């Protein structure tokens, strides 16, 4: 897994490439949680290059979402492949993570 | 090795309600009429093809599993399901010279020991019950459960001989040629998983366990414990989302079970410790979604996922 991080104004855009599973989710956690703790509250996760996500990956995203909630932050997912969207549905996480089509829509939603 | 489920429900015995039974009858009648079945033999044949979810039940008794291997009689947990197991033992196994019955406890929450006072073989002086647990003071815990204030028959009034063995954590013990290894699990008050190895086959019973940190370094010991199991019985009480919200309640989800099974090369995964608030159709729906999850994430793996159902027998 690779994470490419970009910051545009106060929005943190994470493009995640590869597999998000028990071997890699810890890396994402390290790249995400301290950034939230440093008062960053707006995140877009671009999943266009994400191959698959297992329960370990979902766990890390939920942990981040929970933390963001405390700071009234927002995390929007975009460019999510159908299979991965279905995994979110199966796990019961669609109500927790807003999913939009592309980064532009995500930016719009985050600035609402 | 033969594994039979006598109790599969979590937390509290959960009989079917009238509403649920009526719902099933209506559903079956609707299908019979759709299929235009009129004569009784055809209707009976059709009903016999229906699953326990459609025309029976997944089961409301709490945790109890029977294992037979190397002519040994081994029981895991004494939830309300052990009552019917006891009756079956009386009918099929009881002999005048007595029986040796080996009982392993994951922990002593009610749903895992509440059936014991109703376990008929425990009343026969010729029988010997060998209890094993990772927790200390098991005898005292059973005595408390049968204190006169809570139950009319005390533990020492149950005529069988009883032996209590406290297991060292992560140790193995042999019963005949059957090797049983325990493994501590994360649960309020602690719980223990058991791995049974016999004749090149293995069965792992891992219920009442929460997995909070799913990173590889934290789960690798669990994966090793599950490694190459022919059957893994796994705590799937919650959906993934519920498990996160009910943090520290001590239970897990099917999705985590599937991920572990794939990593550990488990052959068959049985979802167990079903949530008492869910009806059979809701539990079956969790199974369907879990299978979808497995197919999406691991299309090349041949893991069989199924529901632990009361009365189901699995030969390994
Ligand atoms: Zn339990
Ligand atoms: Zn428990």
Quick structural gist:
Chain A is α/β, with parallel strands linked by helices. Chain A is built from 4 helices and 6 strands. Chain A has one domain: Transcription Regulator spoIIAA.
Please, could you describe this protein's structure?
The complex is a heterodimer of chains A (112) and B (316). Chain A is of the alpha/beta class and 112 residues long. Chain A has one domain (2-106): STAS domain (Transcription Regulator spoIIAA), CATH 3.30.750. Chain A is built from four helices and six strands, in the order ββαββαβαβα. In chain A, strands 1, 2, 3, 4, 5 and 6 form a six-stranded mixed sheet that branches. In chain A, β1 (2-8) and β2 form a beta hairpin. In chain A, α1 packs parallel to α2. The model of chain A has no long low-confidence stretch (mean pLDDT 95). Chain B has 316 residues and is α/β, with parallel strands linked by helices. Chain B has two domains: 2-14 and 57-315, Metallo-beta-lactamase, Chain A (4-Layer Sandwich); 18-55, no CATH class. In chain B, 30% of the residues lie in helices and 25% in strands. Chain B has helices spanning 18-34, 40-49, 52-55, 82-92, 138-145, 216-226, 240-245, 254-264, 280-297, and strands spanning 2-7, 64-69, 72-76, 100-105, 128-133, 161-166, 172-175, 178-185, 191-198, 201-206, 231-235, 268-272, 304-307, 313-315. In chain B, strands 6-5-4-3-2-1-14 form a seven-stranded mixed sheet. In chain B, strands 7-8-9-10-11-12-13 form a seven-stranded mixed sheet, covered by helices on one side. In chain B, β9 (191-198) and β10 (201-206) form a beta hairpin. In chain B, α6 packs across α8. Chains A and B meet through α1, α2 and α3 of A and α6, α7, α8 and α9 of B. One zinc ion binds at residues 107, 109, 187, 208, 250 of chain B.
